[in-house]
Structures are given as C-alpha cells and as structure tokens.
Amino acid sequence: MKKVTMNVFFVAFCLLDLIYLAMTADSFYQEYVLDKFVYWGYPQWGWMYADPKVYLWFNIVYLLFLVVLPAASVWLRRRFCKTSLILSALPLMSAAVFAYMPSYNWNRQFEIFEAERTIENSRIPAGRWWASAEQMQRYDDNSAWEKFKGYFGRGEWPGGYPIWGDYRVWLLPDFATDTLGRRGMVFHGGNKISSPWGIDMGDDIIDFAIRLRRNGGPMSIEVSYDDTETEGGAEVDVKTEE
Which residues contact 56 (CB under 8 A, 6 or more apart)? Predict the structure, then answer.
C-alpha cells in the first residue's frame, strides 16, 4: 500500500511538473523572445526584471532545473524511490516560491519606504500624470492560461487579480513632472492596501474605468502629498481634470 501511494504521488508530481514547465517555457518565450514583457527596468519588480540579460540567464538555468530534476527522478525511480519522490517534488516547491514573489516584492517596497521614507523607493512621484482609455487594460480580457501564469509571477499580470484587480491604467508623466527615474506607474485595483507601483484604487477602479471611457480623451491627474503621515505613507491628494 505504501509503494502504491508513493507511485501515485510520483506520477502526480511529474504531471504537475510538466504543466509548470510548459507554463514557464511559454511565459519565457512570450516575455523574452517575443519581447512582450512590460516590466524591464522597473525596480519595483525586483532584481530579476532589472536587466534582460539577468532575466535571460536566470530563466535558462531555471528551465534546465525544471527539466533535469524530473528526468533524474524518473531515471532513479526503480532503485531509489524516496529520492525520486523528493526530486520530482522540488520543481513544485520552486513554483510555490514564484507564486509568492509578487507579494514579496510588494511587501519589500513598503519595508524600504518605511525605513528610508524616500519617494524614489516607493509611491508614485508627485506631479501631473495623464491617463487615457488606450492605456487601460481589463483583467478579465486575459485568457485562462495568461491568468494561470500571473499567479506564478509570470506573464503580463504578475501576481494576478489580488495585485491588479479588475482594471489597470498605465500613467504617462507630463513633461514638467520629475519621475525620479521611475517607470511603470499605474492606477489599479486589487486586494492589497496601497501600492508601491502607483495608486491602488481598490474597487473604485471600476468607476474610474467607466469615467475614463466616457471622457473620450486623455484625463489629467495631479498627484500631491501633504505632510500628514498615515499608515503606509503620506496621504495622496489626486485631482483629475477632464
């Protein structure tokens, strides 16, 4: 009975490994080979996304890891059952780490902000920004496969719905706005409180999306900070001009 149970787990782990390998390989192809990744050089997404070369070599090593370990577990299966079972489970353990990475990056940004109080390390820089319907994306427009990749920190929506919510709107800085070298500022929803990548509007992002569509043209957004410290940082005053 014990051997049967181990065999069931082994087969299940190997099948899940194959699914995760296919997801990772497809994600890497879309992000790097087809160059559809939108986060290059965005410091808020961590070291791996800072440089395409770093991303390239990390993924090469990681894909080899995902191929070699299950292959080794199959080869060792007849003589070392327990070792094979462990080897087949390791890729799935690494998948769990990747699923946590978007939340880790989110938490880390606010730890830095709380310690150093620098706008460069968190929050959207003050100034005028522009939003338009052309720069708006809806989470439900993604395929199930793309959503699946998102929950493992891959694809165009790393972290999935909890991070982004129903909509996200990429913001373009006005010429007079000092961006402090930051990129990828965005209005979004999600289940998190506040945002190191822009402005978290929670459920209000739906009303903002409707308003943005009705507006027809770009919407001017003025972001300013007062001196009152609140939980997670200074209070943000957002004024929109249609």
Answer: 32
